[in-house]
Amino acid sequence: MTIQFNDETFRGAYTFKNSEWALKRFPFPFHEDSYMYSVNMEQHKGGPAGSIYEKRFDVDEHYLSEMRDRAEVLKEDPLRCQSLPNMTLAGWDLLELIMVSKSEDYPDMFELQRKGDKWRWINKPMGIDDSFTFLDEATLPFGPMEYITRQTQGDFVVLDQRDENLWMDAGMVTTQADWSLDFDIGMNFFEWHAPVPKAHEMGIFVRALKFLLNVQQGAPARRLNWTMTVNPLLDTSPENYHKWGTQKRTITANNIGEKQHLRVELQTFFRLPRSNALVFPIRCYLASFDDLMTVPKWGRRLHRVIRDLPEELATYKGFIDNRPMMLDYLSKFDDGKPTSNGIWPDRETEPLRD
Amino acid sequence: MSNFSFPESIKSRPTYARLEPRAGKSYLFVADAEGAEAIIDLASNDKSLMSKSHVIYIPKNTGKKYTLQLEKLNINQLYIGPSYSAAQSRLRHTLVSSHMGLQLYLSGTEGLIGQAQRDAMVAGIPHTAIQSEHRGSIGRRMQCVHCKGITEDVDIDPYVCSHCGLSLFVRDHYSRRLAAFQGVCIDAEEPGNIPTAVELYK
Amino acid sequence: MSGSEKINVKVSKIVLLNDLVTRFEFKRIDGELFPTFSGGAHTIVEMKDGGITRRNPYSLMSDPMDQHSYAISVRRDDEGRGGSLFMHNNVKVSDDMVLSYPVNLFSLDLRAKKHLMIAGGIGITPFMAQIKQLDRSHGNWELHYSARSPSLSAYADDLVSMHPNDVHMYYDSENKSIDLENLLDGQPLGTHLYICGPKGMIDWAVGQAVNLGWPNEVIHYEEFLAPKPGKPFQVMLSASNKLVSVGETESLLEAIEREGVDAPYLCRGGACGQCETVVIEAEGEFIHMDHWLEDKEKLSRKKIMPCVSRFDGKTLVLDR
Questions:
Q1: Contact call for A241 and B12, based on CB within 8 A
Q2: Domains defined for chain B, CATH in brackets
Q3: Which terminus of chain C has fewer Cβ atoms in its 10 Å neighbourhood, N or C?
Q4: ipTM score
């Protein structure tokens, strides 16, 4: 196998770390020196070799540890994975999409054998070898969505399309940026985004919905989103907020580089063929400030973005209280030089000349 | 007057309108407390409606204030019960044995409207096809996002979860499936730092 | 890119079902599997008809589980612009053709406790795939299918023999029509209604259901408007700076495409809203044929759906 999997934790002692390889391919989410909402959708049809855009479902060094973390979350709270009764077919769609994609994109790790509806799925990293009957729930240990998303990094939200809207009717959500599937399941696109400030008034959600309703089979789309997390904690759930909330106040000038993480979501959108539903995978990537600062362009840019971010957004993203300390730290990496467009590190060409 | 005009809020927060007559094959009303006034108003606009209707009414703390008036409306089938949960099996039975064309009218507190709406959605009525009019108390049905326990008739913010005891702030984020607003720990980042509770909308 | 992804296919079989309807079956040229689809989906068939590329939508009526072939059924329309005539007269077995990936604007609502289907004539086709999908999941459905006569009722015999209790036939020739009011009256709560057929039938069925208090959210219908022929007219495409003549038997969208101007589309039947185009200037009458724009928008003279709508007048300038 080509990937060396880390043995790490996203809780307790927080032994999570990014290798040089992982940091190099980290999806830094700012393509310019400022940030505002936009419907920043593009086609999800591959990307530079080795980048997180290359494969349909990216597998990286955190795979096994993330799956272990997910299993722990589900043991504690099974409500993190739910599917309303109308979504079973979409669950099979998702299982098929992931199994086909992963076995084609990573043949050394995943294998899918199909004879009619008799399927055999081999997941070598996780040591799984299961035979089952496609579309027969009785032949799998979990429902189809739960089965495959216990083996795939990132959260998954499955949206039913009806009445010119998208309805969040199923999901596997254990690495979320502070929202509850158990609470939001059954809501439409505008309702589950209701708590987001400003974007409704800007018409962002109306345009985004129009785009998503027209995502077609064979033509998936993607975008990046971001927030901040103290400690590499994947499960920043509202359910456990009373347990992890105090961690946000443990930042000091001495530990901020190590503890403060930029949390980036690669959001992709695939039309599911058999159900006409839409799946919305939300893959979370974490990187500490210290690690990010090893890329000079990212250092300059992150300082400018955080400094100029409107107060409402910093509040919504939950770091308004820590912003002054972040800026003290980040300003040391900003020499005021211009930066190149785009999200890539551009180590060879940075800094641009004045 | 039992009407309250809620300030504009986020898009997940339910909104209410006045009940109005609509074409249908049969009519079911579920109401609590001052919600009876909405039925009485509708009945005065459309006299023939009540003779085709089934009304499930829970007086709550209004005692006999409205029951006498309801009894005079010539309602085809009038049930007056002590609580929503007592009335629930009757409501569910009525829904599953109903046919398409049923018109459902809900009136009263947000807790009653939300729970009846949830039972009706399970039975197959789209939530947008259900009319609802808020009357009376502005107390809310809250879910603690941490322990999942429901606290009824919450009219202060923050409030104490009646199950796990955490102090929770009252959000406008609302789940139709749970028939509840969301309560979130208010002192999660600084335990013990709990502001004094204030009355909602005061 | 306009429309959806494309698939190169060969015509593998042509079956004459009756005087008007013919089934066409397709295999992929690259030997790969077809994408699966959901019942009610359509494909856009590209036809090279002389200098014109026609793109007509047809409901996929094969089994959604079958990834080895796709099938459509085409009713010959002697009055139409020629798309169906082209399929009937010019397409031969083993011809190469291009299909789009499936797009569904008429999908089942899987929350329904019962699916009540009303078909008129060739409107049976999307239900063929939906019934196969529902059978696979033990769904609760019932079909009421009306046709002119037994000899013009495509697939009726198959449907009745496979589902004798769920399929109900009505023939004009026998003076039998659907007693819709009674049919709707007894349906259990949670029933969804699906209608596919001529416009008159859709209006009638939707109107009845609404009058009986059925909510809009449970009423689903699909009406493909074949673009109608009309008087030729000229259009100025402002962004691409081209003056284009729209012929009698081509649509405005087809004329735009013929000139090499890329324009978005999905359904090509006035239903999906994708091709909505801004009108910059107009002197003359709009012939709006779509059911996408609101009446208000049609009156505003600021928007047109070029897949089905036309223009009669001196000047039309579009932002395209």
A1: no
A2: 26-134 (3.40.50.80), 140-199 (no CATH)
A3: N
A4: 0.95
